[in-house]
Write a structure and sequence with these properties.
Helix content: 25-40%
Strand content: 15-25%
CATH architecture of the largest domain: Alpha-Beta Horseshoe
CATH topology of the largest domain: Leucine-rich repeat, LRR (right-handed beta-alpha superhelix)
Structural class: alpha/beta
Shape: globular
Number of domains: 2
CATH class of the largest domain: Alpha Beta
Radius of gyration: 20 Å
Strand order of the largest sheet: 1-2-3-4-5-6-7-8-9-10
Largest sheet: 10 strands, mixed
Distance between the termini: 35 Å
Number of helices: 12
């Protein structure tokens, strides 16, 4: 196995579970053994700072190390990309277009993307505004065909609930989607059936508002087909008070998801501790929290 083949094997392992830090640190050790000491130190410092509070006394020291090592180890062909934020996430970059059309166009014209991904520099591309349809450029499709795509939203929808089906559906054309976080306004229109057919999906998040009891059960039955799902967020919004919230019986519909590692249940107050224990009996490696990802109150951790 060549060094490049070994490197790409490490990258695949990391991307299989991006939240697992051990694989990244093993990769750093391998890089150091193969003469890339600066990059190895950059990854280690990036992993460590991700575990600290910003006020931690060691944070400033680690930020200095990250900046210093990045100047040494970043490839000479690396450049900034117009309208795209490059976020260092534990020693790999997440590219986030902050002006979707301009940023997507810039990514499509970046010739070194494939090389950067194959060498383990890029973890994913995040599309955080699903109000607009996906680019149709063949060059964009070619450049990003291998890079994991995370679809989500941090913006209020400019469209009505059902009008969101069209732009979201356009993004579903891409084969490399790893995560979909649906906006709260989304009301499970036509593209929902396409989403639950994406058995390669690893993360999914959505909100319940006024769904009926039978519709809630139907949605969770659909999710149970996503056999590679590792993270699931089901949020009951304040409006859900006018309709049934997911309950213990609904929760057990997730038992077929043997790959599920993290379950977040913000505002799902109809789910009780006995219901959570029953699900954990079926999925022993599952961690369950009552809040959104990254701001969590952990209830059960294996």
């Amino acid at each position: 196995m060549t060094n490049l083949a070994e490197l790409q094997a490490f990258v695949r392992t990391i991307l299989d579970d991006p939240d697992e830090a051990v694989a990244r640190l093993v990769f750093a050790d391998w890089l150091q053994e193969h003469g890339q000491e600066a990059r190895a130190e950059w990854i280690r410092a990036s992993c460590e700072i991700a575990t600290l509070r910003p006020s931690d006394s060691r944070s400033a020291e680690l930020r200095a190390i990250i900046q210093e090592k990045a100047l040494v180890c970043t490839p000479k062909w690396w450049t900034s990309i117009l309208s795209v934020e490059q976020r260092n996430h534990r020693g790999m970059y997440r590219f986030v277009p902050f002006q979707i059309h301009r940023g997507a166009d810039s990514l499509g014209r970046t010739e070194w993307l494939s090389e950067a991904f194959s060498e383990g520099w890029i973890e994913r591309v995040e599309i955080n505004d699903l109000n607009y349809p996906a680019p149709t450029s063949e060059v964009w499709n070619e450049r990003l065909r291998e890079i994991p795509l995370f679809l989500g939203t941090h913006h209020p929808s400019y469209f009505s609930a059902f009008a969101l089906d069209r732009p979201i559906g356009s993004w579903l054309e891409f084969p490399q989607i790893v995560s979909i976080q649906l906006p709260p306004q989304y009301r499970f229109g036509a593209c929902w059936e396409r989403i639950i057919q994406r058995t390669d999906l690893k993360e999914l998040g959505f909100s319940l508002q006024t769904e009926t009891r039978s519709r809630c059960a139907e949605l969770l039955d659909g999710i149970s087909r996503l056999t590679n799902l590792q993270q699931l967020t089901i949020e009951a919004t304040p409006r859900t008070a006018s309709g049934p919230r997911p309950n213990d019986q609904d929760l057990l519909r997730l038992a077929p998801l043997r790959s599920l590692k993290r379950l977040y249940l913000p505002n799902c107050h109809a789910i009780t501790p006995p219901g959570l224990f029953q699900l954990r009996e079926r999925l022993p490696s599952l961690s369950i929290a009552t809040e959104r990802p990254r701001v969590t109150t952990v209830l059960f951790t294996p």
